[in-house]
Design brief:
Elements (H helix, E strand, L loop, with lengths): L3 E3 L6 E3 L1 E4 L7 H16 L4 E3 L8 H9 L9 E6 L15 H15 L4 E6 L8 H13 L3 E6 L4 H13 L4 E4 L14 H8 L2 E4 L30 H5 L5 H8 L2 H6 L4 H10 L4 E6 L4 H8 L8 H11 L9 H4 L8
Parallel strand pairs: 3-4, 3-10, 4-5, 5-6, 6-7, 7-8, 8-9, 9-10
Antiparallel strand pairs: 1-2
Helix pairs in contact: 1-2, 1-11, 2-3, 3-4, 4-5, 5-6
Length: 337
């Protein structure tokens, strides 16, 4: 069973392993598997579920809503997000304008089959909408009872600070940040984490396994496993590319003795590692098979001794990305259409 951690300075507790349904849904077979994975998460004691309106162009929310039907709503924490294009991608179908935020929350609630979400997140920073407009819209969403808490995703430390100040003036608070974070991708450690700690935000981190690379399944010089992220021509292979060098893959294999010492799989070690950071409230973990969920949950509650944390750092060496500027570098410069 996963433990529970407070989300930022709020009184909300979430499961430290949170189920993320960033999957491509479409066929009934995929939807049936997705539903089985959600039920496996519930069976494993996971109560927190993360999705977004853009995933599979709104279908992922629908699948999650259907999978959670019949569950006691008060026993769940449901998170979704707004920013990326949805629908036919018209001029107002993306971004964080008041129009798009208000329409998006209503669409998300309908698809999820609920009156409110526990956490509503700005999926990226919108350079084309005044931050005051966005924060006022979020304040209204909270006052209308459509979202209980507000968070952000992949915002820089400066953007978090500016958003936090406006939120405070408007009578609500930002409680979370959802960045990429793993043993290989530590760009939040120097700026985002200290700022969040100071202001009362927690991290809900995505890709703790670095797109599956930290599971150890990609071996240098060996063929890519069939059906893996690295062979996915729908975008998965592009996202994983930065980690698919012989140097990175060779160093990742050196983590196996550390995992063995803790009686963990390499995937479990990767999830447990991000949870050692006290500013991390939850690791987002998806699944393509129900049995993966039960395996991932075994990373909960693990304490990695300091000497093994040092060994991990030594094994990975200079392949770790630490540049705080990567958050801004990877952000959209204009609203997508």
């Amino acid at each position: 069973m996963p433990n529970y951690r407070y989300l930022g300075n709020s009184g909300l507790k979430i499961s430290e392993i949170t189920y993320g349904n960033w999957l491509t849904h479409g066929s009934q077979v995929e939807n049936d598997v997705a539903t089985s994975c959600v039920h496996a998460a519930l069976d494993a004691g996971i109560t927190s579920f993360d999705t977004a309106d853009v995933y599979a162009n709104t279908k992922a929310e629908q699948v999650l809503g259907d999978a959670l039907k019949g569950q006691r709503r008060e026993s769940l924490e449901i998170f979704t997000k707004v920013y990326w294009p949805t629908g036919p991608a018209g001029p107002n179908d993306s971004g964080l304008s008041r129009k798009h935020v208000m329409e998006s929350i209503n669409g998300s609630l309908k698809r999820l089959g609920t009156d409110y979400v526990d956490l509503y997140q700005a999926h990226r920073f919108d350079t084309e909408t005044p931050l005051e407009e966005t924060m006022q819209a979020f304040a209204d969403v909270v006052r209308q009872g459509k979202a209980l808490y507000i968070g952000v995703s992949e915002w820089t430390a400066d953007q978090i600070r500016a958003g936090h100040a406006l939120a405070k003036d408007l009578g609500f608070q930002l409680v979370s940040s959802q960045p990429q974070y793993s043993m290989l991708w530590r760009v939040i450690e120097d700026e985002v984490v200290p700022t969040s700690r100071e202001l009362g935000l927690s991290q809900i981190v995505w890709s703790p396994m670095a797109q599956g690379v930290l599971s150890g399944k990609y071996v240098p010089g060996q063929p890519l496993p069939e059906g893996s992220r690295a062979t996915d021509d729908k975008g998965g292979s592009r996202m994983i590319q930065r980690f698919m060098t012989d140097d990175v893959l060779t160093r990742v294999q050196e983590l196996k003795p550390v995992a063995d010492e803790l009686d963990l799989s390499m995937a479990q070690l990767a999830i447990a590692w991000v949870l050692q950071n006290e500013n991390v409230a939850a690791a987002l973990v998806g699944a393509s098979r129900p049995e993966q969920v039960a395996e991932n949950v075994k990373a909960a509650g693990v304490t990695i001794p300091a000497e093994l944390m040092t060994r991990i750092d030594e094994a990975l060496g200079d392949v770790v990305e630490r540049d705080a500027g990567k958050t801004a570098e990877g952000a959209p410069q204009k609203r997508p259409s």
